[in-house]
Each structure stands twice: as structure tokens, then as C-alpha cells.
Design brief:
With 375 residues, this protein is of the alpha+beta class. It has 4 helices and 21 strands. Strands 2-11-14-13-12-15 form a 6-stranded antiparallel β-barrel. It is elongated. The two termini are 81 Å apart. The protein folds into 2 domains: 175 residues, Efflux pump adaptor protein, beta barrel domain (Elongation Factor Tu (Ef-tu), domain 3, Beta Barrel), CATH 2.40.30.170; 136 residues, RNA polymerase II/Efflux pump adaptor protein, barrel-sandwich hybrid domain (OB fold (Dihydrolipoamide Acetyltransferase, E2P), Beta Barrel), CATH 2.40.50. α3 packs antiparallel against α4.
């Protein structure tokens, strides 16, 4: 067979490189199929799913709004003096009662010392006058002294009593002014502007800082008059923010102002929302979902099933053959952990809730049922 081997070698030499590589690849495949080791395939991705539901949903309207602070203050001084320290700078978060600035209280300290010295003298004089009055009353009762002497003792006692009370009031006022040298935050919030610097003289009533409360915020909305009758104080409201995609908070109708704009025929409404994480800023644009109209029947899925990429929302459905199908949806009202969707989804279909972030259309997966509390 040497001749045959040589013939095969010459054929390989005359074969173009691409055909030769194809021959080698085919030979490798035939080798594996005939007993070679075949590499194991990766197991399918594990996902968790639940069924879409049919649910009665209260109708709602979506209105634009703007975030406001319910408490905004230009914190001013109650005493005059030189600014010794500015402890709260622009952007500083402060708690209620925290010191914002300190004024120099040297003059008040000197005044307090002088008044305390006068008060001690007045107290001593008052005690003496009280003793003299008691003695005069005894002597007058014994007819030893005249009425005039008793009247003089009463007058002296009354005078020193008034003097002591006046000095005590002065001392209390000065002590109060000393405490006011430490200007404190009237509520918890964030300093948004500074109006003084260390070393600057300030008169009574001068503004030190501007302070905004951010722990709780209001969203102001203009509600068309045809929906005004549906507004109930304390009613639950959903709020979303353009700057915080996917972030939704629950609010309450905090203020319904029953005076319509004469041109737009809308009523101003304030929705109170919590801001414990500090993610929401004053002036942000918001979308407010107010209850309106009758309830309706809708298809709902867990919020985690809806994936948002750019302007598109979609869910992955788990098919009977364990492959996934990407289905575009439009999201609507939220119901706790669930959300209304419109699109190619019917109640009872299996929607993937966990492990759906990196799935591809038609991918085979291993599905596990997941229990989600009903809305």
C-alpha cells in the first residue's frame, strides 16, 4: 500500500488550504462520533416564574407635578452680634435643634455678671427689709411705733422686692440671649444657601441661612375640575419621577385647595410623600397617579417581571417547550408588588420573575415556580 499512501499525500499537497482544513474538521467530528469524548453541554439557565393574573383595578389619571418642600425657612438671628462660627455650610444636612451658627456673646456675659451682682445686693437688701418689716409690725402691734414707721418699713420692703424681681427678669433675658447666640435649626433639613460669614456683624433679624425640609415632601398637582369630586383627603396616591426611572413612592392627598384657576379650571392639590432615603429633590418633575372613575378588569404581573430598556418595556414568557418568548408590554397602574400590563399577555401565562435580566429570545431554560403574594 505504499503507493496508495504516497498518492494520498500528493492529493493533500494539491488540495487548497480551505478544503484541507474542512477535511481535518470532518475527520475530527467522525472521530468523536465513533467513540471519542464528546464535551458536555452547559445546563440550561434556571429561572423562576409565576402566572399572570386577572385583577379588578381602580381607574386612575396621570398628571404632571412638581416637588416642593413643606417647610422652607430663612433662619434669622434673634440677637445682634459678630458671627463667631458658621457650622452649617451650603449642602449640609442638619437635625432639628442642631447648631447652625454661633454669635459672639462676650458683651452678654459681661452684662450677666453685672446683673447677677446687683441681684445679690437686692436679695440681701430685701431680706433686711423683710426683717425690719416684721419688727415694725410687732412694735406697731405693741403701740411702740407709729403708723408712719410701719408704712416706711412696708414701702422699703416693697421697693426692694420689686428691684429683685426686675433684676431676676433682666438676668433671665440675658441668659436667653446668650442661648440665642447659638442659632439652631427649627427643623431637620438641608442648608441650601448661606447669607453670613464668620466675623460679620449681624443685627437682630438678619438671615443666616436658608433651610429646606426634605424628610417629607409635597408634590403639587393641578387637577382638572371634572376629577375634583373624586379627591378624598388622606387618599392613597402613586408618584413616579422622571429623574428616577423605576422609582415609585406611595403618597397621600395632604391638601386639597378648593379654589380653581379661573382660566385653566384646575384645582391645586398637594400630595405628601416620604423621602427617608433623600433621593428626591425639591423642584423635581413628577407623575402623580390619582384615583378616577370606575374600576376595570386588567391583566397584572409582578413588577420584577417587567424589564425596561430605554423606552421599551417587555416581559419574558415561559413557553410549554421550556423556551422563552420576549413580549413587549405597556405598563400601567401599580398594585403593590404587581403592575397592570397591556400587550400580548393573557391571565394564566407563565411570566419569568427571576433570572430574566440576560435571557435571549428562544433560549431554553429550567423553570421553577415562584409564589408571589396576590395584589
Amino acid at each position: 500500500m505504499p503507493g496508495s499512501s504516497g498518492c494520498a499525500s500528493r492529493e493533500s499537497e494539491n488540495m487548497n488550504p480551505r478544503a484541507y482544513r474542512r477535511e481535518l474538521l470532518l475527520g475530527a467530528v467522525l472521530y468523536l462520533l465513533s467513540g471519542g469524548v464528546v464535551p458536555a453541554q452547559a445546563p440550561p439557565t434556571v429561572v423562576r416564574f409565576t402566572e399572570a393574573l386577572s385583577q379588578d383595578v381602580q381607574g386612575s389619571i396621570r398628571l404632571p407635578g412638581s416637588v416642593e418642600s413643606p417647610s422652607s425657612s430663612r433662619v434669622a438671628t434673634q440677637v445682634s452680634g459678630i458671627v463667631e462660627q458658621m457650622r452649617a455650610r451650603e449642602g449640609t444636612a442638619v437635625r432639628r435643634g442642631e447648631v447652625l451658627a454661633v454669635l459672639d456673646g462676650t458683651n452678654l456675659e459681661l452684662q450677666l455678671r453685672a446683673v447677677e451682682a446687683q441681684f445679690k445686693e437686692a436679695e440681701a437688701r430685701l431680706q433686711l427689709a423683710e426683717s425690719n418689716l416684721a419688727r415694725a409690725r410687732d412694735l406697731f402691734a405693741s403701740e411702740v411705733v407709729a403708723q408712719q414707721q410701719l408704712d416706711d418699713a412696708i414701702s422699703e420692703f416693697t421697693a426692694w422686692q420689686g428691684k429683685a424681681e426686675d433684676l431676676a427678669a433682666q438676668r433671665e433675658r440675658i441668659e436667653t440671649d446668650r442661648r440665642r447666640c447659638s442659632v439652631r435649626a427649627p427643623f431637620g433639613g438641608v442648608v441650601v444657601a448661606e447669607h453670613a460669614e464668620a466675623g460679620e456683624w449681624l443685627d437682630v433679624g438678619a438671615t443666616l441661612v436658608e433651610l429646606l425640609s426634605l424628610e417629607a415632601l409635597d408634590v403639587r398637582v393641578q387637577v382638572p375640575e371634572k376629577f375634583f369630586r373624586n379627591l378624598v383627603p388622606g387618599g392613597a396616591v402613586k408618584v413616579r419621577f422622571d429623574a428616577l426611572p423605576g422609582h415609585e413612592v406611595q403618597g397621600q392627598l395632604n391638601a386639597i385647595i378648593p379654589r380653581a384657576d379661573p382660566q385653566a379650571r384646575t384645582f391645586p392639590v398637594k400630595v405628601r410623600i416620604a423621602n427617608s432615603e433623600g433621593r428626591i429633590g425639591v423642584g423635581m418633575l413628577a407623575e402623580v397617579w390619582l384615583p378616577a372613575g370606575d374600576s376595570y378588569r386588567a391583566t397584572v404581573v409582578p413588577k420584577d417581571a417587567v424589564i425596561t430598556r430605554g423606552l421599551e418595556n417587555f416581559v419574558f414568557l415561559l413557553e410549554e417547550d421550556d423556551t422563552v418568548r420576549r413580549t413587549p408590554v405597556q405598563s400601567g397602574d401599580g398594585l403593590g408588588a404587581w403592575i397592570v400590563v397591556q400587550g400580548g399577555i393573557e391571565p394564566g401565562q407563565r411570566v419569568i420573575v427571576r433570572g430574566n435580566e440576560r435571557l435571549q429570545e428562544g433560549q431554553t431554560v429550567a423553570g421553577e415556580r415562584m409564589e408571589v403574594a396576590r395584589p
